[in-house]
Amino acid sequence: MIPAFLQIAIAALSCWILFITVDILWALPREGGVVGAKAIAAAIERGGGHIRGGTMMGNIVSSPDASAGTLLAACGVYSGGIFGGLLATVLVYVGNRICHDPGYAGTTGCFLATFMVYIGTQLGIAAEFFVIGMVIAILTIQGVSHRHASRFLGLLWRLRQ
Amino acid sequence: MEAASMSEGVFVLPEYLTGPFSSPLLQSPGESAELAALLCGIIALYAVIRIMLEPDVMRKLPFLNVFSFAIAGIMALMIPHPLGTVAAAAYFIGSTFESNALASTYAGGVDE
Q: Is ipTM strictly over 0.85?
């Protein structure tokens, strides 16, 4: 039995790596999907941040992306096993279309996260700890320091290019 | 005897008629789920404080996003039923859509 806080730490780390990887691969920092995402990016840049990292943060706010997909996949696996996760994938796909998002970052992230959370539950990490793990992961990007988070995301985007 | 049990049956729900809160799919949330929901609640409170302290409207929205994540997490954790996940997803997608509309309007509307 792994201690609860270690389980939360492992879950948060794996959620963080998954959602950042999927978002960077789907090129969320390239351009704002909607006008609002561009405006948020401009506001973050005015505050001393990086424009590409700010664009990615704006896109996360404006449409369900891989972070939302990971959260809802964890909720789905918690309540209904692997089929709950697949149900969440369908809901995220519908949510992407509602928000006029042309991309598939949310759907991909949710689908991959379903299997990640399921494998985690088999290894002894409870699915509910993936839910709080994802909330902690989004807190580190959106909720601590916009300047530093956007610069870090900008650095990752340069590495990807 | 027969009449008594029948008149009782009018007021007592039959066993085969199950609502969402008596479904066999629904277990009561465990101790670890309560710990996770408590941590989600603390993060939601923190996000609200950051929203109040942030002067720039556009920069409030990422904190609002953290708040939506925490609330959607609490909803799913406290209702361990597939419909709980549907409710959390509906809430989360709705709040994202609202943030989207808010940011677009504040930025001067959608350009054609």
A: yes
